[in-house]
Task: structure prediction
Amino acid sequence: MKELLYHFHKELNRPYDSLEDLSARALSLMAEHIRVDAVSSFLLNPQELILTMQLILAGDQCLEMDEEIHLMEGSPLWQLTEGRKKFLLYHSPHPILYVPLRWTGQNHTQALGVLRLERHTSSRAFTHREKTLAQGFAEELAQNLHQAGTDRKNRDQLERVSTLTDLTEIFATSLRVEDGLKLILQGIQQHFSFDRVRLYLVDRQAQKLKGELSADMRGQIKSLSHEEIPMQPGVHRFVDLVLGSGPDPLMERYKDTVLYLPLKVQGQSMGLLIVDNLLSQQSIAQEDVGLLRSFAGQIALAVDNARLFDEVQDLSLYDTLTQLPLRRYFLQRFQEEIYRSERFNQPLALLWMDIDYFKQINDTYGHQLGDQVIKEVARIILRSLRKIDFPCRYGGDEILILLPQSKEEDAKAIGSRLVQEVREMRLPVKFSKNQAIQVTVSLGIATCPGDARSLEELMQKADEALYWVKSHGKDGAALYRETVQKA
Result:
């Protein structure tokens, strides 16, 4: 028997691709030396006390079957898994032998499952030798299953560490915050197989915890922008966690299936990452908890860096004086709107505005007042336009405005209204005779496809319309088509 067990030991210590392959080989060896009609392996879920069939070898076929055995505390099978029995033997309806799969370490033992050997076509009872051999086989298989499981967990952990490292590095170099957030949420969900991953970030200016994105088990990304929570203690448990308070009773209730990870950089709260298995009710493995906690700081740092990059980008795209987009950003958007206009056969208008007598204002009152004039004109524009309209400070006192989905009459109405609102504006000047100055603007309008079909041509026609207004008294708006008819 010692030689047979040694042979079994050598066979099971060969490399196998999976736990299933290891178990299949073990069942095959057992069937060769213990004459049975079927031999099955069951693995134990210790939390739910359920034995789930892993494999069954019947004849020459090794199959995966769906069979569960619910253990009652104190029952014979429960006692077997607990190590209180060496084997369990039944004679009816046919001879059945259960032996435990228990791993024994230096300081403790662990119940892994059971083996079941059955004789359907014979009533011959299991001999003492067969029971002893089955026990020896089960002990050897349990040791190998535990080692293979440990090796697999270690490989999985190393792979996840590598994945998280790659994700945070890629995130840190992403061009936009949202791109990086999508990447890291999808990566965490995919590699840890959580039901859901959610991210909330602190908006310090608004003093709110704002929802960003959520990734579900299908890898689909959804916006959480509708979720905004004031950063005040006691308002919501998410905010309390970010502010440093402990978990509440509801969090304790779901602590096995929900993990909350506050994100901090140098003691400053950045937000909250939440992963959960609320749908599947699978407990989150402790090794995954430790791994994610250790990487929470790196994720927070990556978020902080990406946010900083976005702020720098915004500074390079927007004029600090007027808060209007700059020329580079405008031309990029202009190309997109021209393409959309052609593809969907939608009208597009361009307004070209400049401030009348701007050089004289600078020369007379100084550049500080000139800046104030531009700033106030920009404020009127931003207040008066639709959300889909896109203005920009093109240079100096020149402002260009894109009006998507706008026909000639729409553009003319908007342009005339802007001229009127600027005309009504008064800027206080201490050393002026009237204590205030009046500002006017001139505005030229061209449309696509009526006047032009390309970016360059549309800008040229709007500029020509502006020149016509400037040379005909200023303080007004004109369509390019009107200027041609009046020429």
